[in-house]
Amino acid sequence: MVVADSGAVEVVVVEVREFDPERDCSEVEDVERRCEVGPGGKLSLFTDLLGDPICRVRHSPTYLMLVAEMFVDKDGDEEERKIVGMIRGCIKTVTCGKKLSRNGKNPLPIYTKLAYILGLRVSPSHRRMKIGLKLVKKMEEWFRENDAEYSYIATENDNQASVKLFTDKCGYSKFRTPSILVQPVFAHRVRVSSRVTIIKLPASDAESLYRRRFSSTEFFPRDIDSVLKNRLNLGTFVAVSSESYCAESWPGADMFLADPPESWAVLSVWNCKDVFKLEVRGASLVRKGFCKTTRIMDRAFPWLHLPSVPGLFRPFGLHLMYGLGGEGPMAVKLTKALCGFAHNLAKEHGCGVVATEVSSLEPLRLGIPHWKKLSCSEDLWCIKRLGGGSSDGSVGDWTNSPPGLSIFVDPREF
């Protein structure tokens, strides 16, 4: 509350309401531009949402975007409304644990209704005013109204402001620390061994394979069929030894799983390029010149496979590899072949990088090529139990469960 010299009373009010695409887009984009990731004066990552502020949640089963609007109430008259923050959230049903089937052999998934918070932004000039906290609390109200049992967020491990907001003020606890692995897309194609056959699966076969072999993996979405049939999904690919199968001899998922080869690997590719683009800002002219030189050398001598840095200092797209899995002694090498295939697919689509996110304990991560300087070795997922009990009681409180070897990263939330 501020009392002006004239004696008029001014009250600053922050109102949280649902995002209105008809009138809020330009203001939301302005806040996004002022909330670039990274401290001022250093390298920062800017996300261009291509004119669609809801793009990162609209492919989820249920989603909502809220904005924080500030205005001054002067003796009952409103003045100068402006958006100073926003938050996005979505809800889905995922695997939170597993139990043995009646025959005691195959694990069965235990599902829960899970909410996810992403894209929390507060204008730099309006921070330390509890606007972020107000946005989170309002979003959690919507989660509870829609019977979500848990809520989680992903943030950079070194983003102390975000970590403190969720763990100290909102009651979240640190839960999982997956790795984001990023590989640049080179000017040359990556060579994939001729001893490996890569087969693109029909959507029905991909769904069958994932449900039968990976549905008990933590965070596996129950609506995996919607993910695989989405227009942004570029396909699911299986790698096997060339001695096992060729593309023409694929027997179908049922026969494949009934008598699988000794080793195999699988992954799917999601086209993030059509959802958003990224841009690295704050680089010096020297750094930009060096990176450009590596690309020139790589194009001139592609047979040398020189490490080159793609054009990250202007908007670039990415492909996400998700649903990684496999079995057998050669699974790591087959995963590497699939990653090479995914790199070449990203090159055909004009992407700057190809990325994936895996558990820190994932055995197949050894087969995932990546650059450490572009990757995040320890992302942080925090979780909170909202109440209710939609999951099977045998799993207990998911927030206290130990991490498994693998997680299933939903591409709709990357």
Structure description:
This protein has 414 residues and is α+β, with helices and mostly antiparallel strands. The protein contains eight helices and 16 strands. The protein has helices spanning 25-33, 131-145, 160-169, 203-214, 224-229, 253-258, 285-300, 331-348; strands at 2-3, 9-18, 44-48, 62-74, 77-100, 107-122, 150-156, 173-176, 179-184, 196-201, 233-241, 264-271, 277-281, 318-327, 353-358, 379-385. The protein starts with a strand and ends in a 29-residue tail after the last strand. Residues 1-5 have low confidence and may be disordered.
What's the short story on this structure?
The protein has 8 helices and 16 strands.
Task: Please supply descriptive tags for the structure shown above.
414 residues; alpha+beta; Aminopeptidase; 2 domains; 8-stranded mixed beta sheet; 16 strands; globular; Plant_NAT; Acyl_CoA_acyltransferase
**Helix coverage percent:** 10-25%
CATH fold-level topology of the largest domain: Aminopeptidase
Number of helices: 8
Oligomer: single chain
Radius of gyration: 23 Å
Number of domains: 2
Q: Can you summarize the main beta sheet?
A: 8 strands, mixed
Runs with pLDDT <50, length 5+?
1-5
Percentage of residues in strands? 25-35%
SSE arrangement:
Layout (H helix, E strand, L loop, with lengths): L1 E2 L5 E10 L6 H9 L10 E5 L13 E13 L2 E24 L6 E16 L8 H15 L4 E7 L3 H10 L3 E4 L2 E6 L11 E6 L1 H12 L9 H6 L3 E9 L11 H6 L5 E8 L5 E5 L3 H16 L17 E10 L3 H18 L4 E6 L20 E7 L29
Parallel strand pairs: 6-7, 14-15
Antiparallel strand pairs: 1-2, 2-4, 3-13, 4-5, 5-6, 7-16, 8-16, 9-15, 10-11, 11-12, 12-14
